[in-house]
Amino acid sequence: MTTPVAASWVVLDIEGTLTPTSQVHEVLYDYARPRLGPWIDAHPRDPEVADAVSEVRREAGLPSDAGTERVVAVLHEWMDADRKATPLKTLQGLIWQRGYADGELTTALFPDVPGALRRYRRRGAGLAIFSSGSAAAQIASFSHTTDGDLRGLFTHHFDTANAGPKRVAGSYRAMTETLGTEPGRVLFASDVPAELDAAAEAGWRTVGLARPGEPFGEADFGRHRAVASFDDVDVEVPA
Q1: What is the per-residue pLDDT across 54-95, written as a single tens digit (0 to 9) for each?
Q2: Domains of the chain listed by start with CATH number
Q3: Following DSSP, what letter does each residue of 85-126 receive, concatenated?
Q4: Cα angle value 156/160/165 (rounded, 5°)
């Protein structure tokens, strides 16, 4: 029998935890890659796009007037390296938002995920996301999933821009303040041991998703409890 974890909040990673890694590295990346250049050229006066492009030039050491072709070449290099660069995530997020809105994208969730999310909410736990993908992209991704529109289940969406790096304890401390609770009342679920280490350092409870066939399916989760699915994770909200 599964022993419930005492938590008022459940914060969840996405890639490898809620969705297969292929959802991001194949479906979403392949969708965004050919659209980056046209999107930049089509939105020259959009402050969000302009700021992201300027940040790409700065981080890559490009001239301030470097054209779209050179900027996109850098973005493609970052995608190939799976670099969690904020300007890349911003641009991808804008493109994915349009893709979901147009019905061209659907988020494939692991089969155990929808039921678990609803179960935690019925128990009275709040749900939040912490992903390297932009908050806007996160919201869009849950608007059109294999189990319908799940946006209403989540209260907060954290990313590397509004919370900080995923492997730094300070990011989890910042999110604790936003959630308005004590660290020990937050459960973080991720497939990446280093992220769980950072969350634990901040005082959070943790659980590792060791999903068969995923990049971290055979990882050493050390002191963190590891499970193969959310069917093995229950939550009990403290009084």
Answers
A1: 999 999 999 999 999 999 999 999 999 989 899 999 999 999
A2: 5-19+107-236 (3.40.50.1000), 26-101 (1.10.720)
A3: -HHHHHHHHHHHHHHHHTT---B---TTHHHHHHHHHHTT-E
A4: 120
